[in-house]
Design a protein that fits this description.
Layout lengths: L3 E6 L1 H11 L5 H9 L1 H13 L2 E6 L3 E6 L5 E6 L3 E13 L2 E12 L4 E6 L6 H11 L1 E2 L4 E4 L15 H13 L1
Parallel strand pairs: 5-8, 5-9
Antiparallel strand pairs: 1-2, 2-3, 3-4, 5-6, 6-7
Length: about 170
Amino acid sequence: MKEFKSIGINRDMLAGLLVLFLPLYIDSIQDLFTQNLNIIIPCIILYALCCINSVKVNREGIRKELYLAPITLKKKTWREIKHYAHVTEKWSGQYGTQKIEVLWFIDFNDKVCLRIQKSTRKNLDKILEIIDKFEDKYEIKFDVKNPYFTAYGYSKVKYPTEKLEDTKKDEKSK
């Protein structure tokens, strides 16, 4: 069975690692750091390894796991997934609005069961070709503002109204 893989980096976790090094400019913290190097260095390496993950696609389903360790983060079969959609998430915060291009894999309860960022992936186009063979694609791209609960599967996906109106017109014409 052939398996296709896409490697990606979780930039948010990696940024958190860099924030840990900022206090090293203070002398008292430098002393604490140098005294506990045998504990801190393995913890930093372990944290950095968790930042790199891979998405593997085969005929059975899609699996998201850590790159260097065989730990599966999420695993979904094609029977569990209704379709996937290209989504632009717009997150508002203290420093302005941030747009993130992602893929949402939506289950039959209209909840997101798997979320993959496009910008941090290597060879995502090849993976999408394979996914198209097994899964339906939601036809239009849509934007979602502050999808705090929706993006992680805690609430249902709110589809754009124009797509729903088109399907209702098609049903009436038949």
